[in-house]
Amino acid sequence: MSTTIHSQADAQSRGIDSPRRAILVALGLLFAAAIPPLAIVEGFKLVQAQFGYGGDLAVTFVGGGLLATIAIGLIGVAYHRLRPVTVHVPRRLPTLREGGWVVAGIAISFVAAILIGVGMQVLNVVPPTNFSAAAAAERPVLIYGLAIVGALFIIGPIEEYFYRGIVQGRLREQMGPVAAIAIVSVGFALGHVPSYWIGGSDLLSLGVFFALLSIAAGSVVLGAIYERTRNLVVVIVIHSLINAISFSLALLAALGA
């Protein structure tokens, strides 16, 4: 039996909602998951400069990136306490069928990314540089090693709790799963824009556009699987493994260069 964190009925008992209000709240949450964390990273740059590490993007990535990710989780928790949202977290181990969804989710996400990558090659689009790639330019083993650990135990769990659990769950109450997945996927992709800005990429380039398209496609897969399985743990595992595999491949590429 699936156990949820607060029920939808409990959430709606706090007031009558509307699709318009749900969208506005979701947009506010998505904005809060993008701009304030960016401000945290920029603030961390100023602090680290006072300790003689100014301009060291590796330090910024480790310290500022960690604080920014934690901030997203805290925003989700704060909103969840103010306005309960149904978050599906079964008190059991994933079933064999859910394990199949994990494999399928990873496979579909990588196929979509590969197809988008092929399109970029056909159009001679230069891949953009994001925060992690820029930070790993001089110390790939350190940065990608920490990124792999962070992907498995910090980034995946926090981002899935926030985007799928809180925001998608909030939108689903008033708009249904399809619209919720679509809005969250656009917001999830746009939430990665600061990463490319910090990485020094031209935000108006085709490279960034295709990168965000790939992120949005992956978000659609995660959102659909979450609705299908009603198990946040499943999408956490998918997200975490996708990021860990991607960072591992980036590390291997850097070492082979």
UniProtKB/TrEMBL annotation:
Keywords: Membrane, Transmembrane, Transmembrane helix. Residues 146-245 form the CAAX prenyl protease 2/Lysostaphin resistance protein A-like domain. The chain crosses the membrane at residues 21-41, 61-79, 100-122, 142-163, 175-197, 203-225, 232-255. It holds the Pfam family Rce1-like. It comes from Halorubrum xinjiangense. One of its GO terms (biological process) is CAAX-box protein maturation. The lineage of its organism: Archaea, Methanobacteriati, Methanobacteriota, Stenosarchaea group, Halobacteria. InterPro entries: CAAX_protease (IPR052710), Rce1/LyrA-like_dom (IPR003675). This is CAAX prenyl protease 2/Lysostaphin resistance protein A-like domain-containing protein. It comes from the Archaea. One of its GO terms (molecular function) is endopeptidase activity.
